[in-house]
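Subgroup meeting minutes
Present: P.N., E.W., G.H.
Scribe: E.W.

1. P.N. recapped why we're keeping a running log of single-chain structure predictions: easier to compare across weeks, and new members can see raw inputs and outputs side by side.
2. G.H. added today's entry (155 aa).
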Amino acid sequence: MINSLLGRSQLARTSSTPGRTQLINFFLINDAFYFVDLPGYGYARAPLDVKRLWGPMIEQYLATRPNLVLSILISDLRREPTRLDLQMKEWLSSMGKPFIIVATKADKLSGNQLRVSLNRGAKVLNGVELISYSAVTRKGADRIWKEISKRTVEG
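Output recorded in log:
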């Protein structure tokens, strides 16, 4: 998603195997703010002992950054949000951390499937609206950038 939003093909390293991001990666954007890529937790294919380290690392990062203006929780539209997605959403809410949920791979679903999946995801996540996004077509990018801009523009 980072590469697609920025129009760069190889800024953030990607893989077809989930779970390749195992450290916190920082990307300075226009000398103005950072995108920070954290390890995933859902479908990641990584050794269990490595995955166990991610929770405390992610929690410490998110809890101790006073300049954190927005978290983007990424979910795959083709799958129902998981218990871990719900836990992360609840944790961000309880900590008062602003967030949006972006449901990726929108190009892989028909219009009807997309609507059904967005409604199902919102229901599982207790009414939080999901922003559909396609890295292929970039549909949804304007909406994501609008959310990012609202929080990064100095007031």
